[in-house]
Amino acid sequence: MYKIAVYGKGGIGKSTTVSNMSRALALQGYKVLQIGCDPKADSTANLTGGKRIETVLDLIRRKNQNISLNELITVGDGGVLCVEAGGPTPGLGCAGRGIINALELLEEKKAYEVYEPDVVFYDVLGDVVCGGFSMPMRDGYADKVFVVTSGEAMAIYAAMNIALAVENFKDRGYATLGGIILNRRNVPDEDAKIQKLSEDTNAPVVGKLTFSQTVREAEALHKTVVEAFPDSDMAKEYIELSKAVLEHTKK
User: What tens digit of pLDDT does each residue of 55-73 get?
Assistant: First the structure.
């Protein structure tokens, strides 16, 4: 089982990237589990036809601990297994707590043993890398961390913070930095900026995604590009990226 955490600044296209990689790997015959670790709980929306699945925190609030494994996991497009951690009531509680509860409950219910996924993606908001948001980096969860960024200043700033968090955990045997994914915004000198980030973090650029209207068209259909437009250049980019991320995870 390969366990992969994907971090990035909010709005950088992280969930879109993860969902397309999940679908691409499912097409290649892998059983994939995608765990949304963002309070917005929209990581898996393009794998479920736009349907918002009930989050782990919502289930806990509604049923306390009397929750079955089937309630935690929804089967999405292409057989991708979908989980959303969820967040607290606005203005109350800690958003990171949802991640902690979700991961602990999945372990308690033996989700990994029952479903036996080949690949697990943790889709994690990277604006804050403390508390629950850092949990997927910790021992027993992700093997590798990948960072989605553009050449925009705030996205690079967030990427540097994520890389620093991974570096601070390395002596504990936690997840290591697998690489950087460039999700282009066509800003000036974007490739050069990402190359500098790669050098500063000692992490390879494992893939570069084109800024494409095809992505928006697929999202309007509540689908991944890989499902909606399988013959498109963007679908091919996501398929190649999924292979590259898996290859770098195996190293």
Answer: 988 888 887 778 888 999 9
